[in-house]
Amino acid sequence: MSDIRLNRNTGLDLVRTTEAAALAAARWMGLGLRQEADAAASAAMARALDTLELDGLIVIGEEPRRGQLVALPGGRAVGTGRGTPVDVVVDAIDGRRLLAQGRPGAVAVAAVASRGAMWAPATAAYMEKLVVDRHVAPHLVPECLDAPAAWTLGLIARSKGKAVRDLVIFVLERPRHKDLIDEIRAAGARVMLADDGDVSGAILAAMPDGPVDALMGIGGAAEGVIAACGVKALGGGMLARLAPQSDEERRAAIAAGFDLRQILALEDLVAGEQIFFVVTGITDGLLLKGVHYQGDRASTNSLILRSETRTRRVIFAEHLLEPGGPG
């Protein structure tokens, strides 16, 4: 892993890429056209990324859907090539279903870290995750992933000085989570169910003053690595383990050399402290406001996190829209 230090303005440069993606995506809100929205947002993000003074390599990018070409595939070089060598992870729309249905919480996300810092899930598609904030992180132990939910919730509650009944747990609403949801409710905690967008859920869980006390359950492996960048920059804690959802995925993961029993800590997912994470709202949500249009202008709301200094910046920006552009 490279120990070259990233410029402290990297986050401000990187946020232009998520703003570009959000501005392009927001026009598709509620139209039910996920692929078209994704293509527009990804193309806008790719153009913005290629203007940055970075020697970037996308470690986790978009997967081709139905044979379509994508603008930001894994392995693609980004930036001018003249800057600092970095790993890059992107998701032009985290919450495609939310955007297509006009629901809250869709965001555009990107992160960079020193070259070689990020773990690449390769063929693995799904991952079990537990995300907590900085108050709980020192008490997190690998056993939390195998213990009954009530035990883990008790640990979280004690660490935060709360009663279990006052905890709010973010869980994706999926059939695979029925037993987990039942366990959380039986323990007395409250569940915040979400249709999509577990990167946002992880950031909400890692924020010490956020509305969510933990994220639990199985989501995308790629989204898990992206989220880990933000969780680490917030000083939170995370445990993860690959969780194949089909025999084909299981065989592919084993063939790729992954140990399906291994529990990954935050440092395994993204090493070091040279990390920047940025996210821009597309539709209004708990984490950020979405894009709003007024005439020839649009407003965006973004969050910039820097791991080395634990800096958290919230940015409201106004953009003059170009004729024929994303607005």
Brief write-up:
The chain is of the alpha+beta class and 327 residues long. It contains 9 helices and 14 strands.
Number of strands: 14
Biggest β-sheet strands, sense, barrel = 8 strands, mixed
CA radius of gyration: 19 Å
The residue fraction in helices comes out at: 25-40%
**General shape:** globular
Q: Report the β-strand fraction as a percent range.
A: 25-35%
The number of helical elements comes to: 9
What is the N-to-C succession of helices and strands?
HHEEEHEEHEHEHEHEHEHEEEE
| Low-pLDDT residue spans | none
Distance from first to last alpha carbon: 39 Å
User: Which structural class best describes the helix and strand composition?
Assistant: alpha+beta
- The mean pLDDT is 92
Give an overview in words.
The structure is a single chain. The protein has 327 residues and is α+β, with helices and mostly antiparallel strands. Helices cover 29% and strands 28% of the residues. It is built from nine helices and 14 strands. It has helices at 10-26, 34-49, 96-100, 149-160, 178-187, 198-206, 221-233, 247-255, 266-269, and strands at 54-60, 77-78, 84-94, 107-114, 126-132, 168-172, 190-194, 214-220, 237-242, 264-265, 275-281, 292-294, 297-306, 311-320. The strands form two sheets. Strands 1, 2, 3, 4, 11, 12, 13 and 14 form an eight-stranded mixed β-sheet that branches. A six-stranded mixed β-sheet has the order 7-6-8-5-9-10, with helices on both faces. α1 (10-26) runs antiparallel to α2 and α6 runs parallel beside α7 (221-233). The longest helix has 17 residues, at 10-26. The relative contact order is 0.18. The mean pLDDT is 92.
